Each structure stands twice: as structure tokens, then as C-alpha cells.
Input
Amino acid sequence: MSTPDVAGATGFGLDAAPLLSRSTVDRSEWLRDEDTAQLWAHGRVLLVDRKGRAPVLEGDVLDHRPTAEFGTQPPPGAVLLGQDDGVSYWALRAGRDGAELGWRDLRNAGALLGSVDAGLLTTAVGLLSWHDRSRYCAVCGAGTRGVRLGWVQQCSGCDREEYPRTDPAVICLVHDGGDQVLLARQPVWPRDRYSVLAGFVEVGEALEACVQREIREEVGVTVSDVRYLGSQPWPFPRSLMVGFAAVGDPEQPLHPADGEIEDARWVPRDDVLAALEAEGNAINGLRLPPGVSIAYRMLRGWANTPS
Output
């Protein structure tokens, strides 16, 4: 096996901050111990349905409703998202299916929202999803209730406290040290959609070790020079995507994991640039991830940094 020449190829990074990492609201822990009535009185509420959809107004801004519409105190299930410019932002699970109302989710609206709104909806989707899945104590099985304005679930039986869970996953751009990048597609993806490789971190595993294991398991390639690029919350339902770059040898045979990876191939830089310019349309059988994903930022960073 030849050794890739990585000289000059390790300087690329994300071309910009991932769009779901732009939260600017103050989410300091001490806010959750402040006077609830005061926070509620000077607040706005974001409704989110069970599929993560929220109302988006013209101009691509979220429809935050005055707290007064919901009563003088936070209703059951309300969670504090944070504070910005003296306004406290809350989230509440909607009683209706947002599809009937034309609401939109992070996948199709996240890239259009401003920094405040992108951060609010990302946090709301993840936090409300955690509450939906944490109604019973993992130790004694008794019911739980939300405390500290939605940031803790407390058991009604043994008083055990549980905090919002995030599942870390690695996502890695594998390149050859020159002008090729390794892309793959899952069978459930839209036609021609290819992206970089990703997988969940296992118990007792370092992030760098997960990168090497996942690439080997998914396409049969051994990688080196693993390097951190950045991260992005991905609340589907509660992941954190931790981005890396690594170097692989294009002479190694590709062995896509059966049932998980439909196809994998090395793609020249020019083809990636053309696909990026196509903005979601397929070029020569290649369609790249949408702009809301960290994968898009990784590919743009690599493609626009000559080796």
C-alpha cells in the first residue's frame, strides 16, 4: 500500500460555521434558577410539533408568540431556551400537526434562519425530543417531571435527576492528500446523493478511534492523520456531529458495508466543485448534502483549498 502525500493538504477547514451551530442566545445555567414569573412575563414562545416543525414567517423568521397568549405562568411542558436582548425564549410542544399549518423543520428552513432563530429551533427540537423520551426513571421506573425550567427530569419515586442527553457521532472527510475525496451513499438517500462518512461513538471509545473504526467498517479503508475540524448539533433526535478530516489511500479496495452503504467512490475535486455550484442538483450523478449540514461546510472547505 502506498503512503499518501499529505504535504500541503492538511490546512483546510470548514469554510464557515455550521449553520446549526450559530446559537447566540444566553443559555447560562443560572438563568434556570431565576424568578420564573419574571422570565415568563418578558418572554416569547416557540411552538414545535412532534416532527420538529415550527411556524416560519415571511422573511424566514420564526413566529415567537407572546407568553401572555399561554397564561400568566409557564404551562406544563414549557422549557426555557435562553435569553437574548432582555427577552426570554421558551418552547412548547404544539397540540397540532404542523404539516397542516405549513410549518417547516430544520432540514428545509435551518439554512435560511438567522443566528438567533437557528439556535432557538435547534435547541427546542432537541430538548423537547429528550422530554418525550424521558418520562420514566431509568432506575426505578417511576414517572418523572421537568424541573429547572425544563433542563432536568426528576424522578417522582427515588428523586434521581437526569439531564438532557446528547449522542456524539463522528463525521469524517477522507481525502487522499491530493485532489480526491471519498464519498458514499446510503440506500435510503435521494437518488445520486453522496456525502462524507459518519457513525456513532461507542461506549469507551475515543473520537479519533471511532473515526478509524467507522471508515474501516463502512468502506474497508484504513485512515491516518485524523484531525478535528468542528462540530454541529444535529437534533434528529439528539446528536452532536463532530467533524474530522483524515487521509486514506485510493489504491485500497473499497468494500461498502452490506445494507448500510450502497456505493462508495473517490471523487475528483473538480467534480465536487461542480456539484457545489449546482446547489443541490445532480451533476454527473453526484448530488451533495444540503447547506444546513456540517458535511456541506466540510466539503466546501476542502474543495476550495487547493492541495
